[in-house]
Amino acid sequence: MAYDDNNIFAKILKGEIPCDKVHETEHSLAFRDINPQTPVHVLVIPKGRYVSMDDFSATASDAEIADFTRAVGDVARMMDIVDNGYRILANHGEDGHQEVPHLHIHVFGGKNLGRMIKPVDK
Ligand code: AMP
């Protein structure tokens, strides 16, 4: 899938719409989800033009991948959810129900999250 420069997270990165920023690094930005599913719900995105983990993992530089991975860990520590535990999740494509076509890792925490995801029919 080609990258859409008008997706909502691209607009946040360009400063065209605001976000509730919690962390920023050279290659990554983290902000609170506008519709939080858990008491802590932060999205971590790379600043580069990547649709999902598919193209990010295949084409991002080592520096971007290292920065992004560290940013996710930083956010969990900053949100003080490491001791009690948390969950990270990234949706890709139609089956994954990805809504925004710019890679984002959801960081969920602040309550007991239950086991994994709901079972669905195979
Ligand atoms: P996904 O289904 O993984 O693509 O999730 C997209 C997420 O982006 C949802 O949890 C939305 O609530 C969130 N979202 C959409 N627009 C914004 C925004 N402007 N600021 C923060 N989060 C947003």
What characterizes the major β-sheet?
5 strands, antiparallel
Average pLDDT metric: 96
Give the strand content: 15-25%
Tally the helices. Answer: 3
Number of domains: 1
- Gross CATH architecture: 2-Layer Sandwich
Which term fits the overall shape? Answer: globular
Small molecules bound in the structure, each named once: adenosine monophosphate
Low-confidence stretches: none
What is the highest CATH level, the class? Alpha Beta
The neighbouring-strand order within the major sheet is 1-2-3-5-4
H/E element string?
HEEEHHEE
* End-to-end CA span: 26 Å
CATH superfamily: HIT-like
Explain what you see.
With 122 residues, the chain is of the alpha+beta class. It has a single domain, classed as 2-Layer Sandwich (HIT family, subunit A). It has helices spanning 8-13, 53-59, 62-78; strands spanning 21-24, 28-32, 40-46, 86-89, 105-109. Strands 1-2-3-5-4 form a five-stranded antiparallel β-sheet, covered by helices on one side. A hairpin with a 3-residue loop joins strand 1 (21-24) and strand 2. The chain starts with 7 loop residues before the first helix and ends in a 13-residue tail after the last strand. The mean pLDDT is 96. The protein binds adenosine monophosphate. Adenosine monophosphate binds at residues 8, 19, 31, 33-35, 43, 91, 97-100.
